[in-house]
């Protein structure tokens, strides 16, 4: 993972807004954090939800890794860049296991 790893606790989140911007068809999520604002596109949020559900609701699974792949011939309405599951095993990446 390149760069600094930041951990945001719930108290570091000032506001979350879900909206479909004027002239667009897809949801954006705006995260207003204590030190920055992040806007996530719908495809990214969908990937986060997929990973969260796959780990949180599975009786033994503890990790899921999604990696960007460029998909040629994607279905209409889907972006070429997709976050696709890869085999990661059952351990979190080092920066996450060391963070508190």
Structural summary, described in words:
The protein has 100 residues and is of the alpha+beta class. It has 2 helices and 5 strands, in the order βββαββα. It has a 3-stranded antiparallel β-sheet with strand order 1-2-3. It is globular. The two termini are 17 Å apart.
Structural class comes to alpha+beta
| Main sheet strand line-up | 1-2-3
Number of strands: 5
**Poorly predicted runs of 5 or more residues:** none
Distance between the termini: 17 Å
- Count every helix, treating DSSP H or I runs of 4 or more residues as helices: 2
* Approximate strand percentage: 25-35%
Order of helices and strands: EEEHEEH
Oligomer: single chain
Helix content: 10-25%
- What Rg do the Cα atoms give? 16 Å
State mean pLDDT (0 to 100 scale).
89
Q: Largest sheet, if any?
A: 3 strands, antiparallel
| Approximate shape | globular
Brief account:
With 100 residues, the protein is α+β, with helices and mostly antiparallel strands. The chain has helices spanning 42-56, 94-98; strands at residues 13-19, 28-33, 37-41, 65-70, 81-86. The longest helix is centred in the middle third of the chain and has 15 residues, at 42-56.
Question: What's the topology here?
Answer:
Layout: E1 13-19, E2 28-33, E3 37-41, H1 42-56, E4 65-70, E5 81-86, H2 94-98
Antiparallel strand pairs: 1-2, 2-3, 4-5
List its traits.
100 residues; alpha+beta; 3-stranded antiparallel sheet; 2 helices; 20% helix; globular
């Amino acid at each position: 993972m390149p760069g600094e790893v930041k951990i945001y606790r719930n108290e570091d989140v000032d506001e979350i807004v879900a909206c479909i911007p004027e002239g667009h068809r897809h949801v954006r999520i705006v995260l207003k954090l204590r030190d920055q604002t992040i806007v996530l596109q719908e495809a990214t949020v969908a990937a986060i939800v997929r990973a969260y559900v796959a780990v949180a609701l599975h009786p033994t699974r503890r990790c899921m890794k999604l990696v960007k792949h460029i998909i040629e011939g994607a279905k209409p309405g889907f972006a070429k860049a997709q976050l696709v599951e890869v085999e990661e095993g059952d351990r979190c990446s080092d920066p996450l296991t060391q963070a508190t």
